[in-house]
């Protein structure tokens, strides 16, 4: 994993559920396709230099916007789900030949990463389905509350490009929208996680998450999907989906297992973001949630006439 992991957009231009719009998110407008910002590539579960998911062909349309893209189509067996119970959720990825895809590359220890989140950003889940021989993906899914949910499928078909598709599903029942105030400290299962650093549109920003328990630093975080933490950001107003991985990785000789996990995040636009940190300790994965607004002046978009500066030698021998 590289020292700098960029945020990559998956889904754009999708309004929050009617009557339950998350008031804090006000960012609008298309993503820039320059300088590695979302819109320039369909980046997925990796960083922009990892040589894995983010190596897709450039496109003007951000990933996750549609259920069909690049010849691949996300097809769930149902778009209506029940609440209050755990039931299998199944889907197929239909390829350009009209047949279900059955061969996928492993990315961050999994062949499929599925994100499920309600339109008001409640009920966030990062889960990993199992693939059947017929190309049918299946995963147990529990939705405790009613509402409209967005499902993001992040995958890389063998021989193809990294792809992120999205589809809406609905859970019947009375909908009660959630609202979130700005927050940089999260409490979950006796753990406290503090977020330090500011998000600046168009610029790489250092964001540090510090994990403590009962007032003591947690210094024995466990690797989860090959990292000490995974960070997802959802932009208010359209659920633009971004995912980054931390600076460093377990076993690289320099990255400590806590109490801090550092990210270099580059958000595409001004606005308010909901951030979700997955971390593992004592054999259990937990999710800390934050609500953060961008600061500073957005960086100007790159133009075709601009000459990029010489690449700096960061001492890591490139971005393999």
Structure in words:
This protein has 320 residues and is an all-beta fold. It has no helices and 19 strands. It has strands at residues 68-69, 72-76, 80-81, 86-94, 113-118, 125-127, 130-131, 136-142, 147-155, 163-171, 185-188, 191-196, 205-213, 216-217, 230-235, 240-244, 260-265, 272-281, 284-293. It has a 5-stranded antiparallel β-sheet, with no helix packed on it. Strands 3-10-9-5-6 form a 5-stranded mixed β-sheet, with no helix packed on it. Strands 11, 12, 13, 14 and 17 form a 5-stranded antiparallel β-sheet that branches. Mean pLDDT is 78; it is low at 1-62 and 302-320.
Give the uncertain stretches in residue-range form: 1-62, 302-320
Give the rounded overall mean pLDDT. Answer: 78
- Overall 3D geometry? globular
Q: Based on DSSP secondary structure assignment, what is the total number of beta strands?
A: 19
**Number of separate helices:** 0
Q: What is the assembly state of the chains in this entry? A: single chain
Mind summarizing the main beta sheet? 5 strands, antiparallel
Instruction: List the strand order in the largest sheet.
Output: 1-2-4-8-7
Produce the secondary structure layout:
Elements (H helix, E strand, L loop, with lengths): L67 E2 L2 E5 L3 E2 L4 E9 L18 E6 L6 E3 L2 E2 L4 E7 L4 E9 L7 E9 L13 E4 L2 E6 L8 E9 L2 E2 L12 E6 L4 E5 L15 E6 L6 E10 L2 E10 L27
Features of this protein?
single chain; mainly beta; 35% strand; disordered C terminus
């Amino acid at each position: 994993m590289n020292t700098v992991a960029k945020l990559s957009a998956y889904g754009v231009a999708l309004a929050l559920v009617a009557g339950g719009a998350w008031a804090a998110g006000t960012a609008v407008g298309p993503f820039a396709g320059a300088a590695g910002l979302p819109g320039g590539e369909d980046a997925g579960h990796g960083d922009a230099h990892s040589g894995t998911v983010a190596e897709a062909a450039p496109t003007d349309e951000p990933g996750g916007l549609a259920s069909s893209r690049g010849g691949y189509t996300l097809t769930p067996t149902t778009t209506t789900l029940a609440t209050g119970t755990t039931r299998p959720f199944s889907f197929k990825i239909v390829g350009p030949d009209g047949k279900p895809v059955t061969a996928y590359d492993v990315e961050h220890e999994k062949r499929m990463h599925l994100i499920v989140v309600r339109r008001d950003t409640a009920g966030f889940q990062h889960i990993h389905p199992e693939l059947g021989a017929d190309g049918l993906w299946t995963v147990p899914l529990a939705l405790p509350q009613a509402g409209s949910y967005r499902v993001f499928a992040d995958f890389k078909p063998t021989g193809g490009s990294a792809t992120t598709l999205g589809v809406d599903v609905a859970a019947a029942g009375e909908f009660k929208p959630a609202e979130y105030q700005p927050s940089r400290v999260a409490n979950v299962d006796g753990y406290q996680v503090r977020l330090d650093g500011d998000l600046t549109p168009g610029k790489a920003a250092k964001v540090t998450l510090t994990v403590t328990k009962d007032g003591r630093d947690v210094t024995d975080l466990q690797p989860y999907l090959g990292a000490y933490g995974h960070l997802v950001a959802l932009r208010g107003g359209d659920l633009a989906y971004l995912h980054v991985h931390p600076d460093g990785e377990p076993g690289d000789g320099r990255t400590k297992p806590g109490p801090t996990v550092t990210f270099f995040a580059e958000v595409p636009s001004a606005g308010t973001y909901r951030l979700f940190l997955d971390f593992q300790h004592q054999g259990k994965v937990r999710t800390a949630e934050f609500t953060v607004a961008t600061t500073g002046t957005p960086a100007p978009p790159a133009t075709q006439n601009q000459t990029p500066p010489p690449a700096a030698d960061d001492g890591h021998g490139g971005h393999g």
